[in-house]
Amino acid sequence: MGRVLSALQPSGFLHIGNYLGMIEPVLILQEQHENFIFIVDYHAITVPQDPKKLREQILFALAVYLASGIDPQKTTIFQQSAIPQHTELGWILNCVASMGELERMTQFKDKSRNKGEQVSVGLFDYPVLMAADILLYDTNIVPVGEDQKQHVELTRNIAQRFNQRFGTTFTLPKPEIRTHGARIMGLDHPEKKMSKSAENPKNYISLLDDESAIQQKIMSAVTDSGKEIIYDQNSPGLANLMTIYSLITQKTFEQIQEEFEGKGYGDFKKQLAQALIIFLHPLQEKIHLYLKNEDELKRILHEGSLRAQDIAEKKMKQIRKKIGVTL
Ligand code: ATP
Ligand code: LTN
Known about the structure:
Blueprint: E1 3-8, H1 16-30, E2 34-39, H2 41-44, H3 51-68, E3 75-79, H4 85-94, H5 99-103, H6 106-112, H7 121-135, E4 141-143, H8 149-166, E5 174-176, H9 211-219, H10 236-249, H11 253-259, H12 265-292, H13 294-323
Parallel strand pairs: 1-2, 2-3, 4-5
Helix pairs in contact: 3-12, 4-7, 4-13, 7-8, 9-12, 10-12
The chain binds adenosine-5'-triphosphate and L-tryptophanamide (LTN).
L-tryptophanamide (LTN) is lined by residues 5-9, 40, 43, 130, 133-134, 142, 144, 148, 151.
Main location: cytoplasm
Family: Belongs to the class-I aminoacyl-tRNA synthetase family.
Binding site for ATP: 9-11, 17-18, 145-147, 184, 193-197
C-alpha cells in the first residue's frame, strides 16, 4: 500500500477533462491506498483571482470532490494554505531547483505567452511549490492528467538532487496517467487540451453545464468531415468524443463502433450529449447539496488539515535538520 496524492486548483469551473483525467483515477486508487487530496489555493493565485470568488471556488472544488465520491473517512482532504509547511518547503526547494529546468516547463511557456513582463514570479515558480506538495507526504503515486507529467518528473529530479546533497530524505514519486482520458481535448480545438481558462465556453463541458448547454456544445464540437464512427487518432475531434463516451458509459471503442454502425456523426453526437446529461445529473445534484452546507464543508477541511499538518510537520523537522537550520 503506497501513498497517493493529488490536487487541483480552485481557479474556475471544473470540466469533464478534470473529472476524467484526475478525479476518477483518484476514486479508483482510493480503495487500495492511503490517500491525500487537496485544493491548491496558493497555486491558483499565481494568476490574479478575485478574493470573493476564490473563496467560493475553494468550497466548490471541495463539493466536487465529495460529490464525486471522495470519502473523507478514507482520504485526507484539505486546503493547501492551511498547511504552511507547503510554502516553507517550497522555499527550501527553490534553492535546490535550477532556473534552467524551470524554464523548460511547457505549462509556464503556454501560460506566460504574450504576457510579457507582467507575468508573476509565482507562475514561474509554480512547479516548485507543487514539488513541495508532493514530497512533504512521502508520496508514491501522483494521479494527474497528461499535462502535469512534466511537473512530476521535475519533482523527482529535485528530490534526487536534494537526497544526493543532504542524504536520503524524499521518496521518489511516480505519475499515474491513464491510457485514455488523461488528455481530453477542447471541443472547439481538438488539437489542444480542454481547459477551464479557455476563452470560448464551447471548449469545455463544465461539470455544472445544463442540458441545453451540453447539447449545444456537443452538437457544435469540431470533427472532421468523415462519416463513419471509427476510432482513429488521425481524426482527433471524433477520437476525443469517442474517448469521453467510452469513459462515461464504460463501453469499449469496438462496442461503440458496433453501436453506431451505419449511423452518422449527428446520431453519435446526440447520443453522447444524452449520456453526458445522464452522467452529470446526479453529480450536479450532490454538488448543490454539499454547497448548501458550508459549515460541514469547513469542518471536513479542518479535520483533514489536522491530519495533514501532523505528517507535514514531522517531515519538516527532518528537513530542517538535514539542511542545518535546526540548532
Ligand atoms: P486549466 O484547465 O485551466 O488548464 P489546469 O490543468 O491548469 O487547468 P487543474 O484544474 O488544477 O489545472 O487540473 C486538475 C487536474 O485535471 C490535473 O491533474 C490536470 O492534469 C487534469 N486535467 C486538466 N485538464 C485536463 C484535460 N483536458 N484532460 C485530462 N485531464 C486534465
Ligand atoms: N499543478 C497541478 C495542481 C497541483 C498538484 C499538486 C497535482 C498542485 N500541486 C500536487 C498533484 C500533486 C494542476 O493540475 N494544475
